[in-house]
């Protein structure tokens, strides 16, 4: 398992957020709160051979 730091923009407050990602699971979908505005963000992460190939951070509001 390797944990890597990934930076992305919060879909609510537009601040740059740092997140630690675990590449031991190839496809992941989960909810994390923004560390700045505390709104819930749906994260979709995909690794291929331990390399990050897709990262999406989406608002959960419809």
Overall domain count: 1
Mean pLDDT: 94
Helical proportion? under 10%
- How many beta-strand runs? 5
Low-confidence segments: none
Q: If you compute it from the alpha carbons, what radius of gyration comes out, rounded to the nearest whole angstrom?
A: 12 Å
- What class do helices, strands and sheet pairing give? mainly beta
How many alpha or pi helices? 0
- Order of the strands making up the biggest sheet: 3-4-5
Write a short abstract of this structure:
This protein is mainly beta and 62 residues long. It has one domain.
Would you spell out the secondary-structure blueprint of this structure?
Elements: E1 3-9, E2 16-22, E3 27-33, E4 40-48, E5 51-59
Give a written overview of the molecule.
The protein is mainly β and about 60 residues long. It has one domain. The protein contains no helices and five strands. The chain has strands at about 5-10, 15-20, 25-35, 40-50, 50-60. The protein has a three-stranded antiparallel sheet, with no helix packed on it. Strands 1-2 form a two-stranded antiparallel ribbon. The radius of gyration is 12 Å and the shape is elongated. The termini are far apart. About 5% of the residues are buried. The model has no long low-confidence stretch (mean pLDDT about 95). This is Cysteine-rich CPXCG protein. Pfam families: Zn_ribbon_21. InterPro entries: zinc_ribbon_bacterial (IPR025990).
